[in-house]
Amino acid sequence: MENKTNKYLIPVLCLLLACLVGYFAYNAGKASSESALNEKDELISELSEKQEFLNQLNRYSVERIGVEEGKTIYVIGHMNPDTDTVCSAIAYARLLNMLGFKAEARISGPLNKETTLALKEAGVETPEELVDASGENIFLVDHSEYAQAVAGMEDAHIVGVLDHHGIGTVTTGHQVVYEARPIGATATIVWLDYLNYGLELDQVTAHLLLSAVLSDTLNLQGTTTTEADRLAIPALAQIAEVSDVEGLYKRLRTEALSYEGMSDEEILYYDYKNYEASGVTYGIGLVNSIDEDTSKKLAARMKEAMAESFDTKGVDLMYASVGIRENGEKIDYIVPANERSESVLKNAFPDYDEYDGTSYIFRSGLGRKTKFVPGLNDYLAAHPHE
Ligand code: MN
Ligand code: MN
User: Considering its fold, how many domains does the chain have in total?
Assistant: First the structure.
């Protein structure tokens, strides 16, 4: 009898023990996965608190933008406006609105074909033109040169500059927001600012910024492109709900390359900028080309156009830069307007590859922002009487 009881008791006890072990192990596992979840939640809330703190800190840093009592801030880009300058101005004016400032975008002149398309595709009206900046509250984007700004900028109240070029001639005595970065587009800086201030980008504004980054970086092929520009494109495309980014770039680029129905002078001054260095003023017009043959023909036409219009532009030196900037290739045909422009060019850039009687040819490119302007400025500073 006793034997029989023992015979059953041991397996029953073993079974009970196994159940107990299993029960405790199950509960321990459940508790540990619960605590892992709690830890994750805590980490997320800690990180978002940290993020909110940084966003707030960034907002505090611009709360004292020096707006004159009750006046609107006009956000404006350079003359001969391009897509980056116009779209950045619109997007940055919206950012200032979200931060509680009275701000509106303005343009400095009629829009080119590419920018017209960029606004149309985003569904945005063309901003009003600002003819005279004197006495106005101004936030400059995409430039800091009086020579590239609308009339009256010397007498404007400049409250900020957002740019990706060299420091220009604009100065202020008072405190100012000055944000410049060596990256591919002003629009990328605007995107970074939305992130830094913790502001939500709407679909339309994201569409504008996307077009601007594509345009200024030549779809990330431009020499000034950075990883920040590369990351901006998919992020902006998602918010803008643009699935075919390549298609958008192609449509914009086709407009930029189309000089259909334009006179030679209009082509020369389509993407033209003025500069001032060491008391010398000069202008450079960029002209887009597709191959060597077209470049030579365009260069000859630009030489004529400069001969006819040079005297009316009030500059000491002038150049046309006809460039092939497709598929990673970069060849620039630099056409000087007159003898003085030519001698400065040859002395400042003696390493050109070829001279064909009209153009000085740079087979690895002479980018206006990256090489041409810095090189001329250095040369003019070292040779003040040329
Ligand atoms: Mn620009
Ligand atoms: Mn730009």
Answer: 2
Residue 159 has φ and ψ, to the nearest 5°, of -105, -15
Please state, in angstroms and as integers, the Cα–Cα distance from residue 20 to each residue in 8, 28, 121, following that order: 18, 12, 68
**Ligand 1 center–CA 8 separation, angstroms:** 90
The last residue of a domain, from among 227, 256, 285: 256
H or E element that contains 96 = helix 83-98
**Which ligand has its closest atom nearest to the C-alpha of 108?**
1
- Report d(CA 320, CA 336) in Å as an integer: 7
Residue 173: give its domain's CATH number.
3.90.1640.10
Whole-structure pTM value: 0.81
20 Cα to the center of ligand 2, angstroms = 71
Is there a single domain that holds both residue 232 and residue 300? no
Q: Which domain holds residue 174?
A: 72-256
Check whether residue 129 and residue 146 sit in a common domain.
yes
Cα(215) to centroid of ligand 2, in Å?
A: 9
In a domain, 339, yes or no: yes
What tokens does 110 get?
């009629």
Tens of each residue's pLDDT in the chain, 386 residues: 445 455 666 655 555 566 556 666 666 666 667 788 888 999 999 999 999 999 999 999 999 998 877 899 999 999 999 999 999 999 999 999 999 999 999 999 999 999 999 999 999 999 999 999 999 999 999 999 999 999 999 999 999 999 999 999 999 999 999 999 999 999 999 999 999 999 999 999 999 999 999 999 999 998 899 999 999 999 999 999 999 999 999 999 989 888 888 899 999 999 999 999 999 999 999 999 988 888 999 999 999 999 999 999 999 999 999 999 876 778 999 999 999 999 999 999 999 999 999 999 999 999 999 999 999 999 999 997 76
**What's the 150 CA to ligand 1 centre distance in angstroms?**
14
Tokens encoding 73: 């801030």
For ligand 1, the distance from its centroid to the CA atom of residue 82, given in whole angstroms, is 5
Cα 55 to ligand 1 centroid, rounded to whole Å: 28
Ligand approaching nearest to the C-alpha of 224: 2
CA of 227 to the centre of ligand 2 (A): 16
Strand ranges, E, within 315-353: 317-324, 331-336
Task: Give the number of the ligand closest to the Cα of residue 222.
Answer: 2
5 C-alpha vs ligand 2 centroid, how far in Å? 92
